[in-house]
User: Fold these one by one.
Assistant:
Number 1:
Amino acid sequence: MAIAREAEPVGSLKEVREAGLDREDLLGVYRNMLMSRGIEERGHILYRQGKIPGSFYTGRGNEGAAVGVATAMGTDDVGTPLHRDMGVHIVRGVEPWRIFAQFMGRVDGPTKGRDGNVHMADSKLGLIAMVSHLPAMLPVAVGCALAFRIREEKRVAVGWFGEGASARGDTHEAMTLAGVRKLPMVFVCDNNQWAYSTPTHLEFATDHVADRAEAYGFEGIVVDGTDVLAVYREAKRAIEKARAGGGPTLIECVTLRMEGHAVHDDAFYVPKELFEKWAEADPIERFRTWLRTNADMSDEEEDEIAGEVKKTLNDALKRAEESPLPDPSTLTEGVYATPEDLDTPHHK
Amino acid sequence: MAELTYLQAISDGLRTEMRRDKRVFVIGEDVGVYGGAFKVTLGFQEEFGPWRVLDAPLAETAIVGACTGAAIMGLRPVAEMQFADFISCAWDQLVTVAAKQRYRAGTPVPITVRLPSGGGFSGGPFHSQNPESSFAHIPGLKCVCPATPEDAKGLLISAIEDPNPVLYFEHKHLYRRIKGEVPEERYTVPLGKARTHREGDDVSVITWGAMVYTAEEAAQQLETDGVSVEIIDLRTVMPWDKAAVLESARKTSKVLVLHEDTRTGGFGAEIAATVAEEAFEDLDAPVKRITAPDTPVPFSPPLEKAFIPQVDDVTAGLRELAEY
């Protein structure tokens, strides 16, 4: 039996305005979703051209969930986005050329070639770089929330995890600590229904991951992750509740991972009908239709946004390819931090 | 100067830093109301309040992970593992997240994890271990193992001040047994600088933590036989003071490496290998190791006594080297 609240879809422009987004913001949300997908599509091309070492992961189908949550975050809020959450980096303002540089292991990527894929974050934009071990970033996000509580700052931490990672103990420990201390924390579960090849019923035995929230003493919400506005509205509520001292919330964004686990995986184990069904709920197409119906997005506006994204990505690719590969002589630098490294806004 | 126990010196160091720096906070199991299993933080919650001395749920992963997040947000967390042994539960947070964050993402993680370690009082397999070598092997982590009260305070302050994740191994068997003069003011002892515990000419003992005292007793016994033993207390095993070890090795030409941790892959192996690589020509005997055997730490007193290197073991090893 489901315990978590199931969020309603967002209807009118009026409702969206009440949630804090004006028409200009909405077009920005659309742009960020396009940018997010565009980066990953071009990443695929780069991969096939042999320009991306290692493997390559995308979040196709998750653009609405990622952009929706990130749009609801305040400038001083922080987060630990994962490999399906490119949209979070885009909303927070990472320059696309640096992402391409990251994919290709160049020095201008946020990790300067020390790590690949979406294992990156610009700390100046309030993001912390993920690790492969999922959901190891949840306790870290809870620690950010703890710092805000100790310093009595009105800031919120957002921690992402997948439905697969919900099986691991870190999830339980992080939610326990956040729950008992009523920390300003929002847990976001990207439930894309497949943990590599393992379906949800082999990862958790409840109807929803969000059903667990009640056991930790806070609210759980299930939202359609392809509905960017519903995700935004629920994330906004949860973030403002946390900011006001109301403690954590767990939001489960349900989507389908529209590609394999990574580029090598053709996802043969996902039923074809499931892909067909969820393709009809493509988050970008869905939002585009909504904008045309509810916000009078014109052909000209649509073309302008698509054109701007295309140009940004073309320029970004060019600039990233000009970025040099790291010098092997730098291999051993920076294993340990120096006191000068603490000269950051966070550490002052 | 005041005479403090090793445990009091740890408390004093922590209190000094918490009074000086509002960013420092303590989190661990039973560290608040109870004052910690060993009472290192006794009275801290009264002085610093419940949000700077936090009783955590029984969740080591969350404790260390939360320290990492809070550190990235600009605080200076000090976590207490109730026993060093329980750090295994937080391995992933230390090794996967904290240790690598600076190198790969440019984000420093200034956290200190206090680890009551070591045996000698029938703590059994899960309350007696010395896991420093496991962490010394991980690039990005630092490992501190003070032996004296003065170092316990100064090294703890250095650990908290350091911009990296630092594991601070405090030996439980020294807590109330070892006393010494400790300056009342704030001071630091640099990480990576060994201390010559005893000067000598014939054999060098390289050791740290509680074994410094075992070595000292053995050295005193050998002195009556006319063998002059030098004892180098490493103080920190990562970074470790290679220069001081090599200098002592070159001076005495005979090296005994002594540690309470088990033998294979123990940190003594790294020291022995380094001495062999870099001071081979200066040696008059093979480098010798005295360590615990490769077993879990046993519970029953005769077994535990056989496990932990004893003064007689060290005396025998030193004689062997002296006569070589």
Number 2:
Amino acid sequence: MVHETIAATNAVVTLDVALPGIVWGWIITMNMWAKSIGTGIIFLGFFLLKKYPEQTGFIRFPIVAISIVFIHIFLFFTVIDLHQMFRFWHIFFYPHLTSAITIGAWMATGFVGLLFGMAYAIYMKKDEALYDKLLGWTVLLAVPVTLYTAGLMAQSTARELWQMPTESAQMILAALLAGTSAMILLGGNKFSDLIKRDLAIILGLSAAAAFILYMAELIFGSMKAEEVAAVLHYVKGGEYTVMFWIGQVMAFIVPMIFVCLSIKNQSYYLLKIAAVTALIGLWVTKHVWLVIPQLLPMS
Amino acid sequence: MQLGFLVDLRLCMGCKGCEIACKVENEVPLSTWRLRVKYVDVGTFPETKRTFTPLRCNHCANAPCERICPVSALHYLENGIVNIDKERCIGCAGCVMACPYGAIYIDPQTQTADKCTYCAHRVASAMMPSCVVACPVEANIFGDLDDPMSNISKYIQSHQGNVQVRKPEKGTFPHHYYVGGGNVTLNPLASFRGEGHNLFNKLTHLPIGGH
């Protein structure tokens, strides 16, 4: 990677250590992707249960079950990414509260506890009032659980590409995109046209907003810091260009188009296709954005 | 007390004695380095020269690695050294992501983060870091930055205008200074880094560290 070299110096690194390669790879991508679904479905469930309480009561148990499954996928990949995974408990016994990892671990623990409380309330006790009360607190905790990874990326001083508040906006949008997609696939044809339309609009808008943010970073990020410019070369003709655009098309562009078509044609089938491509594309998009800053030499 | 390092790049001749001394003193495993010397060739033949830049942990006053560590494995000592407790480290690699100087790596033997500690164990016994002792030209200067009479403070005073730190824009306030450095030696983006840039082998990416 070269960015500032000039003919006058013609500087060439002839001896240095080998580059460390990708330290946070696909396991962290899985972590972020699964977490987006796990918290996103809670956001969407809360929205639907508040707006359409009569028609959406049946989603109470499924959304908790999906969230529990995906939050545990997230936790599983978080733990196996640790090089000393059996020391995971250190986070709880030697917590360092300036670290986003610590805050995230504590918040996620509380979130999981509430999820199990909700599952108990609806499955064992059949108590919808208790469920709804717990849901409010769960939504509150879902916000920091969604955002802590953005905090972690912002604390990664070496990686200029990961900036606050852009990352936090991207994390929330990813949760909405993934949560809506999961809800669309979960609901089948049980939802009314009005609910389907709401889900389509949320999916389309979150895809559009996330796409705008990525494009803004792609075009203007280079103008702020040379490291960002150097990193973005990997998706501007570099080795991750194709993967980056596959992610963008699948996660954002296809869903936007299919959402418009589904609303116009009142086709739930198209909406389901949009949901599937959004979920696949989100993984690809997250992965590219995670990996490229790690390719830059630090020395 | 605030310990710090200064390297006079005009004196360094790239012998790598410091690298080896560090490896031996700290039992740094193969393929990893707490301290290494980067070579950058500058100019066009026949007007060429080779520059040497020893690179190690900068022991920042505002260390991103210390801030991001979830279990305080990376912590400050009273003398300003950013130390690491390998027994506490969980190997999350957050510090590897946070360090703008690429000074932290995952030790392939212990599977924990590791980095230069300014030989904290030697300093505690009133000894100099091993790299300082090994340097044949005294290019490494180590001492108390809070003491205006220390060698490092005097060196900084007498070379004002020619003292630099790496990546000051990061706001990390490194306690590691360079005299006689320049963009080519201190900025990783200012020199071409081709595949197989390593003189002695063609290993361009370490297979360790990630999954």
